[in-house]
Specification:
- The structure is a single chain.
- By secondary structure, this protein is of the alpha/beta class.
- The protein has one domain: Rossmann fold.
- It is 38% helix and 15% strand.
- The protein is built from six helices and seven strands.
- A five-stranded mixed sheet has the order 4-3-6-1-7, with helices on both faces.
């Protein structure tokens, strides 16, 4: 299966803001730019999966009909990590000791009382394992940088804890609206 992993367009949010599960909108021009760059390279009539968060679902809805995809599937397992009470706070406003605690335990620590990377890895792996049972040639997944990193880590044959560590330690360079194709 060819898995087309798409990061959502840039959301409307102030710079230096911690956000994960916050349900942020996307400016019309950002949505149009992402759509224009993706339409020529995404497969037609593929299954389409998406995080239910607006920054993903808006792009999903704008692509689905043009690509001739069946009704998109919105799956909570594709949502970004929940940062608990860190959500929508500036990084400078989050106590340094808390950020340092997360840095010491990137896999198990739950930032702001939200989710750990390990918890996110478990739900993302469950999605990916279910997806592979569908026996399709192409699938498009519109989601978040963290989710994409974990989905890509699935292809290395790692255990869930190893997958979480791999994704947590590897800095991402996934641009908004970027496409990554993974062969499963």
């Amino acid at each position: 299966m060819h898995l087309y992993l798409v990061r959502h367009p840039r959301p409307i949010v102030a710079a230096n803001t911690c956000y994960g599960r916050a349900d942020l909108a996307v400016a019309a021009e950002e949505l149009a730019a992402a759509r224009a760059s993706l339409l020529p390279v995404l497969p037609k009539n593929a299954l389409l999966f998406s995080s239910p968060l607006r920054r993903c679902s808006e792009l999903t809805e704008s692509l689905a009909q043009t690509l001739g995809c069946p009704t998109p599937t919105y799956d909570e397992r594709l949502a970004e990590m929940h940062f608990g009470d860190w959500e929508m706070r500036t990084w400078d406003d989050i106590p340094r000791a808390a950020v340092n605690a997360w840095a010491r335990d990137m896999v198990g620590y739950q930032p702001g009382g939200g989710e750990s990377v390990l918890q996110v890895a478990q739900r993302v792996r469950a999605f990916r394992d279910e997806l592979t049972t569908l026996n399709v040639e192409h699938a498009i997944v519109i989601c978040h940088a963290g989710t994409i990193r974990l989905l890509a880590a699935c292809e290395h044959g790692l255990s869930i804890p190893e997958m979480a560590l791999y994704a947590a330690q590897k800095p991402h360079k996934i641009r908004y609206g970027e496409l990554l194709v993974v062969d499963c």
